[in-house]
Design goal:
The structure is a single chain. Strands 1, 2, 3, 4, 5 and 6 form a six-stranded mixed beta sheet that branches. The relative contact order is 0.10. The protein has helices at 14-23, 36-51, 67-72, 100-131, 135-143, 158-163, and strands spanning 8-10, 25-31, 57-62, 80-85, 88-89, 95-96. Helices cover 40% and strands 13% of the residues.
Length: 198
């Protein structure tokens, strides 16, 4: 695989070709030294490769020294331009022959697709990162008692609680409080009696 000082990568080895089209978005030009239309399309292909070098890879395969690649893609004529997005062949974008206007159009469409996917992945990463709590907040959240939790009362512990000292006064002397009257019905509200001044 050689670049020959250009933005186009020349590929002859089958293993290199498979690795590139699987791991990157790629445009592949199939050509031959004896092909006049291929040579006619060469400057435009180089220009497109230089313009979009940061987005996709532009590959060139000479069909004569690379029969394994040629057979894999069933190339019947050249020039032929194929489009791959991480191993997925975009058949609808294929360009057969020296159709320069169609090649420019389909490269633009392909670049737009690739860049849109990259941007969508970036947005997804930002959303996921923003939704994850920090370790400190997560620890505080785990330590925070639930507001819906109820206190459990153990009736068996009441005598022990009273023995240890409590503010509850269980012995009420009616004689010590002239205003005290036992209620006959505990469900009735307690009414305070007012003693008039003498």
């Amino acid at each position: 695989m050689a670049n020959h000082g250009s933005s186009v990568q020349h590929v002859n080895k089958f293993i290199d070709y498979c690795a590139l089209i699987t791991n990157h978005p790629c445009v592949v030009k199939f050509t031959a030294d004896w092909c006049g239309p291929c040579k006619k399309m060469a400057p435009l292909y180089e220009k497109l490769a230089a313009e979009h070098i940061d987005s996709i890879k532009f590959l060139e395969v000479d069909i004569d020294p690379a029969p394994e690649i040629t057979n894999r893609e069933s190339i019947q004529s050249v020039p032929m331009f194929l489009f791959y997005d991480h191993g997925v062949k975009r058949t609808i974008l294929e360009v057969r022959g020296a159709n320069s206007s169609l090649l420019v159009q389909n490269v633009k469409l392909f670049v737009a697709e690739v860049e849109a996917k990259v941007e969508a992945k970036k947005q997804q990463v930002v959303i996921i990162s923003a939704s994850e709590p920090t370790s400190d907040l997560a620890q505080l959240a785990s330590d925070e008692p639930s507001s819906d939790s109820e206190l459990e009362f153990d009736e068996d512990s009441l005598p022990e609680y009273l023995e240890q000292g409590s503010s509850i006064d269980t012995d009420i002397d009616p004689d010590s409080d002239p205003g005290f009257e036992p209620d006959s019905d505990l469900d009735e509200p307690i009414i305070e009696k007012t003693i008039p001044d003498i």
